Amino acid sequence: DCLTATHRMPSSNSYTNRMASAIALCAVAASSRRALVSAFSTPSMMAAASTRTKRPSSSFSFPQMSLTSSRLFSTTEEVDPGVVEGTDLRVLKYPHPSLRAPNDEIADEELTGPGCEISKIAKEMFLVMYATNGVGLAAPQVGINKRLMVYNEHGDPKKWMSEVIMVNPTIVEFSEASDVEEEGCLSFPDMGGDVERSKWIKVEAQNLKGKKIKKKFRGWEARIFQHEYDHLDGKVYIDRLTEDGRKEIQPKLDELIDTFGEGGAL
Question: pTM of the predicted model, to two decimals?
């Protein structure tokens, strides 16, 4: 900036004086900068800066979702973990018949709180979900045809306070307003497609003690719930794709069908 202040001098007689003034201004500016640096370099200021909370990075940023909004039910690229420690449950791949089979309501007698059989199943479902980098899982996806779903909108086992278990859920109201996001599914590896969902929903369900609960979900959490709820009705996300979206993934679906062999439920 100091040099640009003197780049157009009108005459040689005034040049020397103006150049001297410009140099003086530069000296004052440099002195001020050194003073500011010194002021902000004291031990107390440096300590304060070092303890300031950093803004978290978003490798799984929920409205953008590097791979979670674009590959909706996985926090990163989904994986097939094979054997998962602590459970024999596995994610079933399309076109396994359990994904299309009716799912039974869970009786009140089975809901006796923590430690009951349904509680143990839910706990193991979380183990599988986290191992696959998922954010939600429905019981039929692991071969249990009961109306049970689990999810954690963060997909992070360290954020266990965000874990949700829904028993016998039902959607009682949904918004007419909708949005479209690209979804994927743990039962359909390496696939995705645009799916339209309601922006908000009201649901009723039971907890592990059989107590009835009512919730209203919006946005991302509403989308997770609707995706898992479809599984409880024998639907899968590919049923909601446009004709072009279905054509795009059909070659991969054909590979899964060939791999499964006879007896698949399309």
Answer: 0.73
